[in-house]
Specification:
The complex is a heterodimer.
Chain A: E1 5-7, E2 10-13, E3 19-24, E4 31-37, E5 43-50, E6 53-56, E7 65-68, E8 75-79, E9 88-95, E10 104-105, E11 109-113
Parallel strand pairs in A: 2-11
Antiparallel strand pairs in A: 1-3, 3-8, 4-5, 4-9, 5-6, 7-8, 9-10, 9-11
Chain B: E1 3-6, E2 11-14, E3 19-21, E4 23-26, E5 32-38, E6 44-50, E7 56-59, E8 62-65, E9 75-77, E10 86-93, E11 103-104, E12 108-113
Parallel strand pairs in B: 2-12
Antiparallel strand pairs in B: 1-4, 3-9, 5-6, 5-10, 7-8, 8-9, 10-11, 10-12
The chains are: A mainly beta, B mainly beta.
Chain lengths: ~110, ~110
């Protein structure tokens, strides 16, 4: 079984540019989560999809961040325009629909905004 | 709000030494508690969990006991190996049945020297 895959693994962009991160969850996993770790601090929740619907986006920092999950498969997280404080590692995780199912994390995308 | 606090790292130990990584939490109700581990170049993996007071989670020689009276979930291992070198994250979930939305601590880097 393929794990959660994220692309790209690294991205370096300039302030003001746009970046799109992609996450492919494990096939059949209805739940998809985005998290972010900034500057070696704690990992923070961004949002949660159930299939194609946003279940909880309470952690999205501002309207420069847009997440989508068309068709309930892969998800994208777009940052537009990027700011310096957006630098960090963005993690995606997925789980099955059953209550209490374990989370499976991707390796993360390291975003550097210069 | 709910939060998780971990001891600051890095922690450097010699092989076969005893390991303790402290974790305390603040939460209303009865959260589930987790330890995740991130090995170099990989995503986070669930190491162990406990869902109620006095539960002990264990895996790969690691243990942690859910102590409600001290609001703690300290991670221990009797004899560490070089292969245990990683970043360890303590986390909680305060949503019944949804263990995907997690509140993480800042992570503790463990380096084990031969």
């Amino acid at each position: 079984e393929a794990g959660v895959t994220q692309f790209p693994s690294h991205s370096v962009i300039e302030k003001g540019q746009t970046v799109t991160l992609r996450c492919d969850p494990i096939s059949g996993h209805d739940n998809l989560y985005w998290y972010r770790r900034v500057m070696g601090k704690e990992i923070k929740f961004l949002l949660h999809f159930v299939k194609e619907s946003k279940q909880d986006e309470s952690g999205m920092p501002n309207n420069r961040f847009l997440a989508e999950r068309t068709g309930g498969t892969y998800s994208t997280l777009k940052v537009q325009p990027a700011e310096l404080e957006d630098s960090g590692v963005y993690f995606c995780a997925s789980s099955q629909g059953a209550r209490g199912s374990p989370l499976h994390f991707g390796n993360g995308t390291r975003l550097t905004v210069t | 709000g709910n939060s998780v606090t971990q001891m600051e790292g890095p922690v450097t130990l010699s092989e076969e030494a005893f390991l303790t990584i402290n974790c305390t939490y603040t939460a209303t109700g009865y959260p589930s508690l987790f330890w995740y581990v991130q090995y170099p170049g990989e995503g986070l993996q669930l190491l162990l969990k406990a869902t109620k007071a006095d539960d002990k989670g264990s895996n790969k020689g690691f243990e942690a006991t859910y102590r409600k009276e001290t609001t703690s979930f300290h991670l221990e291992k009797g004899s560490v190996q070089v292969s245990d070198s990683a970043v360890y994250f303590c986390a909680l979930s305060d949503l019944p049945g949804n263990t995907g939305k997690l509140i993480f601590g800042q992570g503790t880097t463990l380096q084990v020297k031969p």
